[in-house]
Specification:
Elements (H helix, E strand, L loop, with lengths): L3 H27 L6 H5 L2 H61 L5 H8 L12 H4 L4 H17 L6 E4 L12 H5 L3 E6 L4 H7 L9 H6 L6 E12 L3 H12 L2 E11 L20 E9 L19 E5 L11 H9 L5 E4 L11 E4 L9 H6 L11 H6 L9 H9 L8 H9 L4 H6 L8 H4 L8
Parallel strand pairs: 1-8, 2-3, 2-7, 4-6, 7-8
Antiparallel strand pairs: 3-5, 4-5
Helix pairs in contact: 14-15
Length: 456
């Protein structure tokens, strides 16, 4: 059964509906609005009371709306402030983790990155190019600029000279490089077309040369008393065969320039795989040899040391392209001040001012012996300037035995080593000291007998 309260509510609702209907009926009869009925029916006092109640009701309604707005804005402000606070906390956490990683050291696994993406670790070395390397070293940058300007002014011939020749014996006759060129040279760059390049890089030459054929070229006959040679030998058995060639031509290996190849532009996975190699090969070697006596601290008119480094980092050429990095020419020209330069196995696209190019892949010959000799009638050195001498790194002169002993005496804490020092500086055939103070030369019996001196 329904309760008395529920029955009362229903009756009140019905009564309210009837009153609203009567109110509308009266308003339609009198042609007024429902709000104006009370003004016509009620007395003045009751009308005032009714208006006050309406104002109070409207005011409450407005207050409720304002309160709702305040609550909404407050919630939005709280949400925004919460998000900002979370971002700030996240940023502080990231900063702390970054500082922690820097303190602990880098954790980048470039080898694993290479496995995953085929990007070589050397791709991430910053500023490897020659024009970028000295951005933070203004003096070295100025030195390189002055050297390049001087080399450009003193280069002869002004136009590249070249000879088309396979550099080998023909019809059992003796081939003479000295007879072909008719001159001696201060520096020689050899870039032989090896079978290794065909295997690894799919490079095709008109003729590939074996190491025996390369060794048979009489390079020793066209070198001056003191000279340097740079021999590209790949990254396989050429490291050993190249040393044999240097020895045959009368040179001693003193440095090894390494070309490290990047693959930023084109990712290749199995390009440099070889059945005889354990690791993927991403470099090539250029052996540097020396002939004659050259002292670094005294022969500054012929060599400028310590300007360049023994690394070349550049992009690996496309498949089938035999080009080597042009930076090897810059290293040679910065180092050796001799202007008589010979480039063996040159090609049409590698011709360079100041070099005589000889090779089988050249399309023509424009060489004249008499003209070439006449270019060096005034001397074969590029020379130097006072500013270059001031800027370039110097090799300190080697101290004499007496100076070493006096220096040791001036150090009271090392008195006990004096006898040992005197013994070392007087001990003959000290191969360790001979190698440590000179170029990184390979020691043999002729070296120990005083045939040459690269000590300074």
């Amino acid at each position: 059964m329904e309760s008395l309260l529920e029955i009362s509510r229903k009756n009140f609702k019905i009564l309210k509906q009837k009153l609203n209907l009567n109110k509308k009926l009266i308003a339609n009869t009198l042609n007024v609005s429902t709000d104006e009925i009370f003004d016509l029916v009620l007395p003045k006092s009751d009308q005032d009371i009714l208006h006050e109640e309406r104002k109070t009701r409207d005011l409450k309604k407005e207050n409720n709306i304002e309160l709702l707005k305040e609550i909404t804005c407050s919630k939005e402000t709280k949400i925004v402030s919460y998000i900002e606070k979370e971002d700030q906390n996240r940023y502080s956490i990231d900063v702390e983790s970054t500082i922690k990683e820097e303190n602990e050291g880098p954790k980048n696994d470039y080898c694993q990155h290479f496995v995953d993406t085929q990007q070589r670790p050397q791709n991430f070395i910053r500023d490897p190019a020659l024009n970028e390397r000295f951005e933070d070293y203004p003096k070295l940058r100025e030195l390189i600029k002055l050297k390049d300007e001087l080399i450009s002014k003193t280069n002869v011939p002004n136009r590249p000279m070249y000879i088309k020749s396979d550099l080998l014996n023909k019809d059992s006759s003796d081939f003479s490089l000295a007879e072909l060129t008719g001159s001696e040279f201060d520096v020689i760059l050899v870039e032989p077309p090896l079978h290794e390049y065909q295997t690894h890089n799919k490079i095709f030459f008109n003729k590939f040369y074996s190491w025996d054929e390369i060794k048979s070229i009489d390079i020793g006959s066209v070198t001056s008393q003191r000279a340097f040679i740079f021999l590209w030998c790949g990254s396989g058995d050429g490291l050993d065969k190249g040393r044999e060639c240097l020895k045959k031509w009368g040179f001693r290996r003193c440095e090894d320039i390494v070309w490290i190849k990047t693959n930023k532009k084109t990712l290749r996975q199995n390009r440099n795989l070889d059945c005889g190699s354990i690791l993927q090969r991403t470099k090539e070697h250029c052996l540097m040899g020396i002939k004659g006596t050259v002292k670094r601290s005294q022969d500054s008119s012929f060599i400028h040391t310590n300007i360049d480094i023994d690394l070349i980092i550049s992009e690996e050429p496309d498949e089938g392209c035999p080009d080597k990095p042009e930076e090897i020419f810059n290293i040679i020209e910065h180092f050796c001040l001799g202007r008589r330069r010979l480039y063996l196995f040159g090609r049409d696209n590698t011709l360079r001012h100041g070099w005589l190019s000889v090779g089988p892949d050249l399309s023509d010959t424009n060489f004249n012996k008499d003209i070439f000799k006449g270019l060096f009638s005034g001397g074969n050195l590029t020379g130097t300037t006072d500013r270059i001498e001031l800027l370039r790194p110097k090799t300190p002169p080697i101290k004499s035995k007496m100076q070493l002993i006096q220096q040791q005496i001036q150090q009271p804490n090392q008195q006990n080593n004096l006898d040992q020092l005197v013994y070392q500086v007087n001990m003959p055939n000290n191969t360790e000291s001979a190698n440590s103070i000179g170029f990184g030369v390979e020691i043999n019996q002729n070296n120990l007998n005083g045939e040459y001196d690269t000590s300074a």
